[in-house]
Structures are given as structure tokens and as C-alpha cells.
Amino acid sequence: MPNDSADAPRRITVQRRGPWLVDGPVEVELEDGTTVSSDRFRVALCTCRRSRRYPWCDTSHRRSAPPAARRPATDTEPPSEARPAPDAGPA
What we know:
Layout: E1 12-13, E2 20-23, E3 26-29, E4 35-38, E5 42-45, H1 60-63, H2 67-70
Antiparallel strand pairs: 1-2, 2-5, 3-4
């Protein structure tokens, strides 16, 4: 599917934490030289390499981060050394 000079340029939308969205149809040449193609109007190309359908994105990037990495950091709880020791009661 080589592009002729008369073809409009392909638009690729780059997202910070997600796939590259490419206006289709597209042909993708993989590292081993094989070619895969899609005739969809837009395809999502995997950038994290976790997809089971690589080079197509299957949203694995959403599940791959540990829960703590997805949660925003908060400063509501003091560090453990700043917490008061539990009361041991009368001696």
C-alpha cells in the first residue's frame, strides 16, 4: 500500500500514555520484515509492547501499571516516624 504523491498524508495522533492513533487504511512493516495491514478508518498502534495483538493496541497499557502508580499521590498521612507511638498504658 505505498503512498502515491497524490495521496493525502496520514495523520498520526500521539498520546502521552497510550497508543498512536493512525488514520487508515494502514500497512505496518514489523521488525522481522512481515507486513500487517488494516483497512479500518483509524487504528491504534501499540507503543508499550504489552499488547497480545501487537502491533495493534488491545489496551494492555491500562492494566499494566501497578495500582499505586495509577493512584495520585497525597500528603494526608504523615511518615511512619512522625506518627505518635501507641499508648502503652500505665506502667
